[in-house]
Automatic annotation (TrEMBL):
GO terms for biological process: canonical glycolysis; fructose 1,6-bisphosphate metabolic process; fructose 6-phosphate metabolic process. It comes from Cyprinus carpio (Common carp). Mg(2+) binds at D119. Catalyzes the phosphorylation of D-fructose 6-phosphate to fructose 1,6-bisphosphate by ATP, the first committing step of glycolysis. NCBIfam families: 6PF1K_euk (TIGR02478). The lineage of its organism: Eukaryota, Metazoa, Chordata, Craniata, Vertebrata. ATP binds at G25, R88, C89, G118, D119, G120, S121. This is ATP-dependent 6-phosphofructokinase.
Length: 777
């Protein structure tokens, strides 16, 4: 078979100059993107320039345009905002301003621009590119540059990255800063819930987003808000009465608080603004509830970037440099986007035009079209919200004869409760009778089954923290399935859940009770289950690791030349160590999947010794708990301490079970909510498909599936087919996508390495992109 891999070593930046700027509103993660562009650019031999204060700095020139060094982007990964500054620039909107900007770039040999900003900033960059040759002609005619200089710098290449907390740019599932803004919102909502519950209050929260309701929508999904108001889905006439009815019903069900989330651009069907004060007055007047208003404001822009935003920005920054290296004079300006779990390049103006069409559709009251134009991520979030907020009194609910059991298996993972809540609500809406099983299959065998789970009585399922698999109690579990007439199973968990489902499928030939639809949702901090790129709980764990690494690095701010050795969990899977290392700016990460020996350890010590001679006198090394039987955390700590004696000192830290605790991140809440809703809909479909002669009988491969994210889409995969993809000895998939991120971590830490860029270089089109993978997140 012909090897189709392509490596970036064939791309050289020698003789090229790249300018990087941040423009428009700031967003957490911009600094991570700047850092990635600078380091990747220098790595490939290009000169990289900071353009301070956005387009204003480009117009003004002088000290605003400075060459960047490797060390100049140190310690900025964990800093929010943008350290190179951003400013709104009226001058750049004029022809004269762009002429001055062109002169400043030509004088420094810059013909490659990486612009991090919103749609306005990227539109300005594209206009600048289109005018470039004409601007150079004017500069030649005025004698400010030579004909030779004009020919040498005849083409300007533009690559954009979208930095905006609003997530209002079409063509990408997430913009840099959105996840961090969601963190700020959810932190506030979680805090408000405790005080609201104490006093039985209603809180009306206004979140940012301009004319886009993404932040409001996703935060409402993540915190289980009672009502949400967004520009893309104006409430129908009579919404005031419906909202008050729902708030009143929730109070009648002994819920002590109400949360209403309002996007700052929320409107009614007549395009009139819906404000927080209007909502407050309505609730007080109609219900007499004690109501408070909280406007979050610019706190949503501030703070440390989340792990997701750091990884997203780092991946996009590297991809942006690759795009600039591969650009030819005829290459259109592109924007680096996220589609599912994959970085893609899209024509910049296609994305800008579609973004502008959204506002036009909303102005013309074509709201359904506006939702579709927002993209599949927004549309799927909205559909999930509608599904979960579908409110009918018991008498109006459809009735089915199907019983569905829900259980958690294995170690706890943040976001499991969100998945259970979503599955139960959708299941009851579908008319099924929901059964909760406490303590996993161990509890199932003992009959620890709660009958008739109501949507508002979604108490936390107890998680089975033992590795007891169903095979040990298969007779008793089959008996309980028969006693309660269970027609379908939803299993939420990690590798133990995967093995459990395989055992149940294997037992179908002996027990007809297991011939029912079964679905598994991957929930484990280790992210070690075959069939999915991501698992519920992984993001929360990554954030715990990154926050701890930030604090540990900060503790060395007053101490020179110190290296920290940090042990992470994950079993034999190196996901947490690798991706956590990329997000925290680690110098190395030792994992089982990439064997290492004493020579590699020695090489890392030498690399850190060289690093200590620079202005960056601090090192961070992550080690997966099972990366090596002999090279333990203590061994590596002692080796580094001995070999680094006189150059640097060492400290070690075992993070332990703190990686499993804490409040679920917005990503995990949202991911768990969406895949659980999708899984329950799949179960409903299969129940109808396999219902014959008064009973459910399902024994085909596709009746026992794992629902996972694969690159761009959520996919149901038969667990039997995933057996061949799994290393059962080490409890990891045989192939793991994130191993492709390891070279990024090494490059950004200044190691010479090989990087497969086979997936890069394909300029896609936004219309074609939306037409496929419609079931993805």
């Amino acid at each position: 078979m012909q090897d189709t891999k392509k490596f970036f070593e064939n791309l050289s930046g020698a003789g090229k100059s790249i300018g990087v700027l941040t423009s428009g509103g700031d967003a957490q993660g911009m600094n991570a993107a700047v850092r990635a562009v600078v380091r990747m650019g220098i790595y490939v031999g290009a000169k990289v320039y900071f353009i301070h204060e956005g387009y204003q700095g480009m117009v003004d020139g002088g000290d605003n345009i400075k060459e960047a060094s490797w060390e100049s982007v140190s310690s900025m990964l964990q800093v929010g905002g943008t350290v190179i500054g951003s400013a709104r620039c009226k001058d750049f909107r004029t022809h004269e301003g762009r002429l001055r900007a062109a002169l400043n770039l030509v004088q420094r040999g810059i013909t490659n621009l990486c612009v991090i900003g919103g749609d306005g900033s990227l539109t300005g960059a594209n206009l600048f590119r289109e005018e470039w040759s004409g601007l150079l002609d004017e500069l030649v005619q005025s004698g400010q540059i030579s004909e030779e200089a004009a020919q040498t710098h005849s083409a300007l290449h533009i690559v954009g990255m979208v930095g905006s907390i609003d997530n209002d740019f079409c063509g990408t599932d997430m913009t840099i800063g959105t996840d961090s803004a969601l963190h700020r919102i959810i932190e506030v909502v979680d805090a408000i819930m405790t005080t609201a519950q104490s006093h039985q209050r209603t809180f009306v929260l206004e979140v940012m987003g301009r004319h886009c309701g993404y932040l409001a929508l996703v935060s409402a999904l993540a915190c289980g808000a009672d009502w949400v108001l967004i520009p893309e889905m104006p409430p129908k006439d009579g919404w005031e009465e419906q909202m008050c009815h729902k708030l009143s019903e929730n109070r009648a069900d002994k819920k002590r608080l109400n949360i209403i989330i309002v996007a700052e651009g929320a409107i009614d069907q007549n395009n009139k603004p819906i404000t927080t004060e209007l909502i407050k007055d309505l609730v007080v007047r109609c219900l007499g509830f004690d109501t408070r208003v909280t406007i979050l404001g610019h706190v949503q822009r501030g703070g440390t970037p989340s792990a997701f935003d750091r990884i997203l920005a780092s991946r996009m920054g590297v991809e942006a440099v690759l795009a600039l290296l591969e650009a030819s004079p005829g290459t259109p300006a592109c924007v680096v986007s996220l589609c599912g779990n994959q970085a893609v390049r899209l024509p910049l103006m296609e994305c800008v035009q579609m973004t502008q069409e959204v506002q036009k559709a909303m102005d013309e009251k074509r709201f359904e079209e506006a939702v579709k134009l927002r993209g599949r991520s927004f549309e799927n979030n909205l559909n999930t919200y509608k599904l979960l907020s579908h409110h009918k009194i018991d008498a109006e609910l459809p009735r089915s004869s199907f019983n569905v059991a829900v259980l958690n298996v294995g170690a706890p993972a943040a976001g499991m409760n969100a998945a259970v809540r979503s599955a139960v609500r959708v299941g009851i809406t579908e008319g099924h009778t929901l059964f909760a099983v406490n303590d996993g299959f161990e509890g199932f065998s003992k009959g620890q089954v709660i009958i008739r789970w109501q949507p508002r009585l979604c108490e936390t399922l107890q998680v089975c923290i033992w590795t007891t698999l169903p095979a040990k109690h298969i007779d008793k579990i089959a008996e309980q399935m028969r006693i309660h007439n269970i027609n379908a199973l939803l299993v939420i968990g990690g590798f133990e859940a995967f093995e459990s489902l395989l055992q149940l499928v294997d037992a179908r030939s002996r027990y007809e009770e297991f011939c029912v639809p079964m679905c598994m949702l991957p929930a484990t901090i280790s992210n070690n289950v075959s069939g999915t790129d991501l698992s519920i709980g992984t993001d929360t764990s990554l954030n715990a690791i990154v926050e701890t690494c930030d604090r540990i690095k900060q503790s060395a701010s007053g101490t020179k030349r110190r290296v920290f050795i940090i042990e992470t969990m994950g079993g034999y899977c190196g996901y947490l160590a690798t991706v956590g290392g990329l997000a925290a700016g680690a110098d190395a990460a030792y994992i089982y999947e990439e064997p290492f020996d004493i020579r590699d350890l020695q090489s890392n010590v030498e690399h850190l010794t060289e690093k200590m001679k620079t202005s960056i006198q601090r090192g961070l090394v992550l080690r997966n708990e099972n990366c090596s039987e002999n090279y333990t955390t203590d061994f590596i700590y002692q080796l580094y301490s001995e070999e680094g004696k006189g150059v640097f000192d060492c400290r070690k830290n075992v993070l332990g079970h703190m990686q499993q605790g804490g409040a679920p991140s917005p990503f995990d809440r949202n991911f768990g909510t969406k895949i659980a809703a999708k899984a329950m809909q799949w179960i409903s479909k299969k129940l109808k498909e396999f219902y014959r002669k008064g009973r459910v009988f399902a024994n085909t491969e596709d009746s026992a599936c794992l629902l996972g994210m694969r690159r761009r889409a959520l996919v149901f995969q038969p667990v039997i087919q995933l057996k061949d993809e799994t290393d059962f000895v080490h409890r990891i998939p045989k192939e793991q996508w994130w191993l492709r991120l390891r070279p990024l971590m090494k490059i950004l830490a200044k190691y010479k390495t090989s990087y497969d860029v086979s997936d890069s270089g394909q300029l896609e089109h936004i219309v074609r992109l939306r037409a496929k993978d419609i079931s993805a997140i």
